[in-house]
Design goal:
The complex is a heterodimer of chains A (465) and B (63).
Chain A (H helix, E strand, L loop, with lengths): L7 H9 L5 H19 L2 E4 L1 H16 L11 E5 L26 H8 L3 E6 L33 H8 L5 E6 L5 H7 L2 E4 L19 E6 L2 H11 L29 E4 L1 H7 L4 H16 L3 E4 L5 H27 L5 H8 L6 H21 L5 E5 L15 H4 L6 H4 L4 E8 L5 E8 L4 H14 L13
Parallel strand pairs in A: 2-3, 2-4, 7-8, 7-9
Antiparallel strand pairs in A: 1-3, 4-6, 5-6, 5-10, 9-11, 10-11
Helix pairs in contact in A: 2-3, 5-6, 7-15, 10-12
Chain B lengths: L7 H10 L9 H18 L19
Chain lengths: 465, 63
């Protein structure tokens, strides 16, 4: 009997010891998807036969002594903006409902080469932007902790599927918080790596200069395992960084002693005020880091609204440039949330875009200066637990400044880490941010925190029988 | 925050100029959200040195 919930590290260790069969593990996830996803809607396409064939192949390789590492035989899901050879990649949109790529995205190919089993394609906000929406070809994913609640977006299906144990890990993309938001609301670990760390080639773009691909999983260790497979230079992505890929798992000692952490309190106390459970969760997390031997001091940056304005204006302009022609020709084929938000881009001038780019340079320098004597910064990942669907307005992304967008503007590695649960049992989270390409320190601190607390032992129950 | 205060007619004209065929039902909501863009634009427009470079300047191939 395969347990309902396993981390990638746990399953990988069992597979390596031949105590768990990749075929059994994959079949158990397919059974679980069949049983639960009618309520969660996290998948828009399940690749059952293909996944089982890949699992049988993985099993044969492992039995023959040709293990590819800790992802070999692990079932994962792909946000449906990651292109997959011969398998439709729709962006969860009617606009691309017939799009069948000829190649895998670079990151998909790398995950497959590491032995991961792709179980299916996961729900997303339309083109990683418009949602949650009920007027698209597939319904929005629902939060496994409470199916009346939003998963966060845009990597909504990945958040739901991983939290519910339908897959052990999944891919997300993050242009303004689309990995960290769903990770926070669904209780996962979600890592937006440095800009350029993971290739964007073969991933449907939202905004070229802000798009990041990354892993979502149950733990920091699982994110490290996935990042190891996904990272690396790719000439097909002009923003790809040509620098060595460190051993991310090696950084996970369980220790965080000596790390210097800056707390950006004003982001979540005054600029976008978080609710009391979130503030308490962050205060408790700071205490945990201090007990682990870290030093924590407060840090003040430009107002959060400046960071958000910079990022959102760039995002709208770049996304509008991608969709402009199709919006003119097929406006009604987009969902209302996407098309109405995107219409606002028509009000932005070319000068505004350049001013945003000038501000970006200033803000990147500001964070670099502020972190000159720090290893990490900590702030909120979301202002509250997951809201109900009816509490999310069409223009919500403009109403309060995003807590996650600042680190898309700077391209810094940033991770959502679960820091407890509300009285109703909904996950809370904080955000850890590192210096560019210092994912090892982000993962090291998140891993130490997870091991110093008991939150990773709690999994969603309702509606799960 | 002060904005330039586009009128609803100006917003609708800008959308029409962009060639977007927006259903009548959705126009009021979009017009009502236009102030978000104006407020963000104000935050971008700052007194800067003429030489203040944007972030997307890049070295040419071979540099």
């Amino acid at each position: 009997m395969v347990p309902d919930f396993l981390t990638i590290a746990e399953a990988g260790a069992l597979i390596a010891k031949r105590e768990l069969s990749p075929v059994e593990l994959t079949q158990s996830r397919l059974t679980r998807i069949e049983r639960l996803d009618r309520q969660l809607h996290s998948f828009i396409r399940v690749l059952g036969e293909k996944a089982l064939a890949a699992a049988r192949s993985a099993e044969a390789e492992i039995i023959a002594g040709r293990s590819r590492g800790p992802l070999h035989g692990i079932p994962i899901g792909l946000k449906d903006i990651y292109e997959t050879k011969g398998v439709p990649t729709t962006g969860h949109s009617k606009v691309m409902i017939d799009h069948v790529p000829r190649e895998d995205a670079t990151s998909v190919r790398r995950l497959s080469e590491a032995g991961a089993i792709v179980v299916g394609k996961l729900a997303t906000h339309e083109f990683a932007f418009g949602g949650p929406s009920f007027d698209l070809p597939w319904p929005p994913a629902r939060n496994p902790w409470d199916t009346n609640r939003f998963t966060g977006g845009s990597s909504s299906g990945t958040g739901a599927a991983v939290a519910a144990g339908l897959v052990l890990g999944g891919t997300g993309s993050d242009t303004g918080g689309s990995i960290r938001g769903p990770a926070a609301y669904c209780g996962l670990a979600g890592l937006k790596p440095s800009y350029g760390r993971i290739s964007r080639a073969g991933i449907l773009p939202l905004a070229f200069s802000l798009d990041h691909a990354g892993p979502m999983a149950w733990t920091a260790e699982d994110c490290a395992i996935m990042l190891q497979a996904m990272a690396g230079h790719d000439p097909a992505d002009p923003a790809s960084a040509d620098r060595p890929v460190p051993d991310y798992r090696a950084a996970l000692s369980g220790e965080a002693k000596g790390l210097r952490i800056g707390l950006i309190r004003h982001f979540f106390e005054t600029d976008n005020p978080a609710n009391e459970p979130t503030r308490q969760g962050i205060a408790d997390a700071v205490k945990v880091f201090e007990d682990l031997g870290c030093s924590v001091r407060e840090l003040r940056l430009s107002p959060l609204a400046d960071w958000a304005a910079c990022g959102i204006m760039m995002m709208l302009c770049e996304a509008y440039a991608i969709h402009e022609a199709t919006l003119r020709e097929r406006f009604a084929d987009y969902g209302e949330a996407f098309r109405d938000r995107m219409s606002l881009a028509a009000l932005i001038s070319g000068s505004d875009y350049v001013q945003a780019m000038r501000l970006r340079r200033e803000l990147v320098a500001e964070l670099a200066r502020a972190m000159s004597d720090l290893d990490l910064v900590i702030t909120a990942a979301a202002p509250s637990e997951a809201p109900t669907f009816d509490a999310v307005s069409k223009f919500a992304i403009f109403e309060r400044p995003s807590l996650t967008m600042p680190f898309n503007v700077t391209g810094s590695p940033a991770m959502s880490v679960c820091c407890g649960y509300t009285e109703a049992g909904l996950p809370l989270a904080f955000q850890l941010v590192g210096k560019p390409f210092d994912e090892p320190t982000v993962l090291k601190a998140a891993h130490a925190y997870e091991h110093a607390t008991s939150w990773r032992a709690i999994r969603p129950r309702a509606p799960l029988p | 925050m002060k904005t330039q205060g586009m009128t609803p007619a100006e917003v609708e004209a800008a959308l029409a100029r962009a060639g977007l065929e927006i259903p009548e039902r959705e126009k009021p909501e979009i017009v009502g959200a236009a102030h978000f863009i104006e407020e963000m634009a104000v935050r971008l427009r700052r007194k800067r040195a003429m030489t203040a470079e944007p972030a997307h300047i890049f070295p040419p191939p071979g540099a």
